[in-house]
Every structure is written in C-alpha cells, then in structure tokens.
Amino acid sequence: MEWLVSLLGAALIMVALRDLFHTLWHPTRHGGLSRLVMAALWKLAGRLRARRRVVGLVGPLAMVTVVGMWAVTIILGWAIVYWPHMPEAFAFAPGSGLSQEPELLDSIYLSLVMVATLGLGDIVPAEGWLRVASPLEALIGFVLLTATVSWVLEIFPTLTRRRVLAIRLALLHRTDPSVRQLDCAVGASLLGSLATEVVRVRIDFTQYAEGYYFHDGEDHSSLAATIGYATHLAQLGQAARRVDVRLTAALLAGALEDLATILDQRFLHTDGEPAEVFAAYAADHGRAPTGA
C-alpha cells in the first residue's frame, strides 16, 4: 500500500513534467494542462464587462498561473512520495521537533526544501533509494526555475515580432498603395518581406502558442486588427503585370493561408476560409478588422 501511494505521487510529478516539456520544448496542437488554463482565463476575461482593462493582464497572469500549477503539482507529488515512509525512513536533526509534526506536514516541508534547493539538513533521508530520489527533486526544482526564466525571455521577442508586423501593415494601410505602385521591384521586395514576417509569426504561434493570449495594445499594433489588410495587399500584387511581383504576392498569400490554418486549428476552430479566420481572430481579440 505504501508503494502505491508513492507511485501516485510519482505519477503527479510526471504529469507536471510532461506538461512543462510539451509547453516549452515540444509544442503540439493538442496542448496540455497549461494551454487549458490559458484558454480558460482568456474566455473568462472575454466575458467580463471591463474586457479592455482585464484582457491585457491575461497573458502575464496565465503564465504565472501555469508556473504556479507546475510548482504545486511537483511539490505535492514529491510530498506524496515521501509521506508513506515518514518518519521511519528519515533522520531528523536533534531538537528540531519536526518528527512531532503530522507526517504529511513533514513531507510537504521536506518537498518544499528540496525543490527550492535550500538543503537545510534538518530532515535527511536514511534509506538508500530516498538518498537518490531527494537530490533528484532538487534537480527538478532547478530545471523548473531555469525553464520559467527561459520561457519569459523567449515569449516577449515573439510578441515584438508580431507587433512590428502589425504596425507595418497599419502604416501600409494608411498609405494605401495601388496596383500600379506595387507593380515594380520595390513592390516585389515589399511583398516578399511581408511574406517572411508572416512566416515568422506563424512559427511563433506554433512554437509559443501562449503568445496568442497576450493583448497587443492599440489597433495599429494589433495583428488581429491589421492582418486582414495583408490579404488585400496579396490580392493587389497578384493583379500586377510584373512576374516577380505576382510571385511574391503568391508567396504572401500562401504564408497567410498557413497562418490562418494554424490560428484556426489551435485557437478559433471556425473551419472557414482565411478571411473568415482572420475576422474571427480580430473578434476574439476585441478588434475591428482593418478594411481594404
């Protein structure tokens, strides 16, 4: 029975580590617990009356919630591993009084100390397998801290790339180039660079899906509001006479199609055409799509 309880704790630890792995290093379209938490917070914010003020907090708050969920699951999992073997399999420092506390409380305390890599030494494993398991928890705690810092440092550059593309599209919309103006070498270069940026954003949504739940600020920096105009530019380019302009316009249209597919598969589930997906994307972010 003791080993069944410990195995339950090990299962909790594996659930947390699997979710961490798939969120940070091997994202899948099916997501995991972290994506469910983020999606739930996003939907909840969308139903609040003060959506504009609340939605900007969803992304950072969701990341904090997910990291807290990982930490609590790992701590509780290791505490459950230790619990059936407490206090017989452990040595307590003289005068600490820890052995007089409830066994579950001692187990949670030891788990907290180990995952934080404090190494206080007031509770020490006495059995051989625990002497191996306890340092392993400290190693997992270090991995969790490193992964959290890396996650924060990696997500914000993806938001910057998305906002740069959005502002660029907003400026182009303000200029409103015609087919004639795009029908030149500069137009081909412009459409090609836009296609490259769209591909980068598509990869960001694949690798860092949590970026979807970050608010982009004003309309001119919101990709949800401006991405529809990129479709209009691709259509203008495909009507040009120059072959290189038509080619880069086709590349831009293909990149937009791929982006719409990722958005629809992972977040929106409209099963519609790219224009419908981009309209749903704008609506989900509380934006009015930029017209042609």
TrEMBL record:
Q: Name one Pfam family in it.
A: Ion_trans_2
The yes or no answer to whether the keyword Coiled coil is present is: no
Task: Report keywords, A-Z.
Answer: Membrane, Transmembrane, Transmembrane helix
Organism domain of life: Bacteria
Q: Which InterPro entries does the protein's record reference?
A: K_chnl_dom
User: Where in the numbering of this chain does the Potassium channel domain appear?
Assistant: 75-154
What SUPFAM superfamilies does the record point to?
A: Voltage-gated potassium channels
- From the record, give the transmembrane residue ranges: 57-84, 136-153
Q: What is this protein called?
A: Potassium channel domain-containing protein
Native source species: Nonomuraea cavernae
